[in-house]
């Protein structure tokens, strides 16, 4: 008991307190000076002594991740807490405090030496995780039943046990009880257990020992079964994880392939569009040159006719000859413009003289070929997904068969709420088959959606380009026809005007 602290003001484990404690434990001399100069690093501290500090609550120790030895003895601590991060701790002293319940030690799996001496503990509990524990000091507490010590039987590494000062230690059978029922203990209350005590204990507690041994065997059997169950659960989790990772990897592969194929097709579309644009621009320049030369010739003829009319030198036969020549020029222009347009149309469609990138039919062939490659890549990926799903389904079936076998043997490794399900093999296999079909059908639907989407994309592009070329060609022909008709109408009008002027002059 720690009544000497009843009137002491509790202390908080502050950063200042921790820094001072670490500083006090620094090496002496030059080494200590260097440590202090470099700064105090809690994460590197191996030992921390917080004895006689009037500490009420364990807190703020999360930074001491490398700590191996911790002294918290002779304080006012009532509850074991705040130690979860000290997973490297090997030595823990909580003696001379006010602790009533053992708790908060589950994460200290590397602990080798534990002292809870002189507290208020009534039950030895919550220490099953301390499988590396070698020394346990629980003396001077309030343990009154020898059965309290049975829990130590589960800690096979404990060789030294101190329970002196507890009411149970006054029991005449105390040492023989420990010798018989906690057989791994070598030193009890710092005295070696002799062979005579072991013999007395074995004889006196033969029946309880047989019962405990039987329970241990049953527990070991259950643990073995639990390990099998855990192993199968791990197999299930591993199967799910592998299936998920493989499926995600395959989906990423499908995405990468699809993206690559899309950009390849897009580059081909862009290249073809650029070639068509370039050919159209060249064609238009040729047409403009033809029209410019025609307009120059037309202007010359019209000027000659107007000049002759102004000078009253109009000869009807000469006018007819000149206008007939111009009509022929108009016809020649029409022929050349139509030939120019036909040449462009042939280039775009599939002219023998056109390069592959400028041929619509060649472009269609390439685009269809690339589309087929893309669809084949999608089908290959979908096949991989179906194979992965089949392997996953087979693994689930194996795990289910394992549980069904356990249910048939009425073993306890299967939870009660699952036994009814696994009693009916047909139901289980039907459910597995149904889930397999659902996943397979989903893969099929995704495959069809992507394949149809790729084909629709290609068909739409090709149809759009064909329609665009047809509209352009028709519009161009109408434009040429309209222009030629206007030119013919113009020269006819000029001819009529000149002849009318000539007749007017003759009448005067």
Automatic annotation (TrEMBL):
Location relative to the cell: Cytoplasm, Cytoskeleton, Flagellum axoneme
InterPro entries: Cilia_flagella_integrity, Leu-rich_rpt, LRR_dom_sf
Pfam families per record: LRR_9
GO annotation, cellular component aspect: cilium
Main location: cytoplasm
Assigned keywords, A-Z: Cell projection, Cilium, Coiled coil, Cytoplasm, Cytoskeleton, Flagellum, Leucine-rich repeat, Repeat
Entry-linked SUPFAM superfamilies: Outer arm dynein light chain 1
Keyword Repeat among record annotations: yes
Keyword Repeat appears in the UniProt entry: yes
PANTHER family: DYNEIN REGULATORY COMPLEX SUBUNIT 3 (PTHR45973:SF12), PROTEIN PHOSPHATASE 1 REGULATORY SUBUNIT SDS22-RELATED (PTHR45973)
Entry's family note: Belongs to the DRC3 family.
Protein name as catalogued: Dynein axonemal assembly factor 1 homolog
Species whose genome carries this gene: Strigamia maritima
């Amino acid at each position: 008991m720690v009544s000497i602290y009843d009137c002491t003001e509790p202390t908080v484990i502050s950063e200042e307190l921790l820094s001072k404690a670490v500083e006090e434990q620094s090496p002496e001399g030059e080494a200590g000076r260097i440590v202090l100069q470099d700064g105090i690093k809690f994460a590197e501290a191996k030992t921390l002594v917080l004895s006689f500090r009037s500490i009420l609550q364990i807190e703020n120790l999360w930074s001491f991740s490398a700590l191996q030895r911790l002294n918290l003895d002779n304080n006012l601590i009532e509850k074991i807490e705040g130690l979860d991060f000290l997973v490297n701790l090997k030595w823990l002293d909580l003696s001379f405090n006010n602790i009533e319940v053992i708790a908060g030690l589950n994460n200290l799996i590397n602990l080798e030496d534990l002292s809870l001496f002189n507290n208020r503990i009534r039950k030895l509990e919550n220490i099953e995780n301390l499988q590396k524990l070698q020394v346990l000091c629980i003396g001077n507490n309030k343990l009154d039943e020898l059965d309290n010590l049975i829990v130590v039987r589960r800690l096979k590494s404990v060789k030294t046990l101190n329970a002196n000062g507890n009411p149970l230690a006054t029991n005449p059978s105390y040492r023989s009880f420990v010798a018989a029922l906690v057989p791994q203990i070598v030193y009890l209350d710092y005295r070696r257990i002799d062979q005579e005590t072991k013999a007395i204990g074995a004889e006196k507690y033969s029946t309880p020992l047989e019962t405990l041994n039987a329970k241990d065997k049953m527990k070991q059997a259950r643990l073995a079964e639990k390990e099998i169950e855990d192993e199968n659960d791990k197999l299930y989790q591993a199967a799910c994880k592998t299936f998920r990772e493989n499926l995600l990897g395959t989906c990423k592969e499908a995405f990468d392939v699809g993206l690559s194929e899309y950009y390849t097709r897009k580059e081909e579309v862009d290249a073809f569009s650029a070639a068509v644009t370039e050919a159209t621009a060249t064609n238009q320049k040729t047409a403009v040159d033809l029209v410019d030369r025609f307009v120059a010739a037309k202007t010359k003829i019209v000027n000659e006719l107007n000049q002759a009319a102004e000078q009253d030198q109009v000869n009807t036969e000469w006018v007819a000859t000149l206008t007939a020549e111009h009509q022929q020029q108009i016809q020649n222009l029409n022929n050349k413009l139509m030939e120019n347009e036909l040449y462009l149309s042939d280039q775009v469609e599939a002219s023998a003289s056109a390069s592959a990138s400028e041929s619509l039919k060649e472009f269609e062939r390439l685009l269809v070929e690339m589309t087929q490659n893309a669809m084949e890549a999608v089908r290959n990926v979908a096949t991989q997904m179906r194979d992965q799903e089949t392997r996953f389904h087979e693994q689930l079936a194996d795990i289910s068969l394992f549980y069904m076998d356990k249910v048939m043997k009425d073993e306890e490794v299967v939870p009660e709420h699952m036994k009814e399900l696994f009693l009916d093999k047909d139901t289980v296999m039907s459910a597995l088959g149904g889930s397999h079909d659902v996943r397979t059908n989903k893969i099929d639907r995704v495959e069809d959606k992507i394949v149809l989407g790729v084909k629709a994309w290609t068909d739409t592009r090709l149809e759009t380009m064909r329609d665009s070329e047809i509209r352009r060609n028709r519009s161009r022909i109408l434009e040429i026809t309209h222009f030629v008709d206007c030119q013919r109408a113009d020269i006819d009008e000029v001819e009529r005007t000149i002849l009318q002027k000539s007749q007017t002059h003759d009448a005067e």
